Amino acid sequence: MSVFEIVFWLSMLLPFFFFPTYLTLASQVAITALFAISVDLILGYAGIVTLGHAMFFGLGAYVAGLLSARLGWGEPISGLFIAGAFAGLVGFVASYLIVRVQHMALLMVTLGLGFLTYELANAMTWLTGGTDGLSGVNTWPIFNHFRFDLWGYTAYSYSLVVLLLGFLISRRIVNSSFGLALRGIRENVRRMPAIGSEHRWHLQKVYTISAAMAGVAGALLTQSTNTVALEVLSFQRSADVVVMLILGGTGRLYGAILGSIIFLLVRDQAAGLNPQYWYFWIGLLLMIVVLFLPKGILGGLSRLVRRNG
């Protein structure tokens, strides 16, 4: 890691010392950032446009919740692996459809899958609780020692560690030959078979990895809040994470984290000023970024550094 990266990750510890009353919000930021990274893997690096990735986030959240509420298993670490594996399995099955369509058809397919999953969870009230949400979730202490407290110290520590691991895994992927192939597919999918690249298989692999990571993020939300609401599968969550990537910059893993921080902080402050019209400020911010920083805030900063360098 560079000096700037070390400073960035150390700055993520500031809420513990200077903003302890915002630790719950900080844990939400870390969880959302992990979800945003999962979407950036397919959108920013592979060029798979999606508006239904909350399907995998929600599946992970429900699997973690059902393990505890229905099966009595609330161990958090194994819960993350099980939720991620299940979401990844569903993502692998869905990838056979995803890789066969492009552009607007791809957008509609991902959107349709998201809506189908949402309505399925809404209809299966006997299992999911429907609009009332899943109750009875009880997450055990991490390593039987660190109990999830009301102030959010454990939740933020736990979420931050998982975010860092997810980031390191993602960076290893995008900096590998596999990641280079993904960028080639994003730039020109028709030329990749000419150099012997199995572009569909590459897309299936990254889509599966992305789904698994989104499932882990959803499980984190369940474990840190002990609740599962139907909203985890909503279109709004899928759309919000795309907005975060546009704000921070796609194809830059740090852009996913930065976009999540900015989006959730603006939402928190704007909702405090006016709970009804806070999306006005998000829309205004999005318009400014798109008009003046088309590659996102991080892209604009990178361009400024290169110009001054």
Which secondary structure elements does this structure contain, and how are they paired or packed?
Layout: H1 3-11, H2 14-17, H3 23-45, H4 54-69, H5 76-98, H6 103-123, H7 125-128, H8 153-174, H9 177-187, H10 199-225, H11 235-248, H12 253-273, H13 278-292, H14 296-308
Describe the structure.
It is a multi-pass membrane protein. It comes from Aquibium oceanicum. The protein is mainly alpha-helical and 309 residues long. It has a domain at 21-234. It is built from 14 helices and no strands. It is globular and about 55 Å long. The model has no long low-confidence stretch (mean pLDDT 90).
Features:
transmembrane helix; 72% helix; mainly alpha; 14 helices; globular; membrane; single chain; 309 residues
Structure at a glance:
This protein has helices at 3-11, 14-17, 23-45, 54-69, 76-98, 103-123, 125-128, 153-174, 177-187, 199-225, 235-248, 253-273, 278-292, 296-308.
* CA radius of gyration: 19 Å
Helix content: over 70%
Mass-distribution shape: globular
Sheet of most strands: none
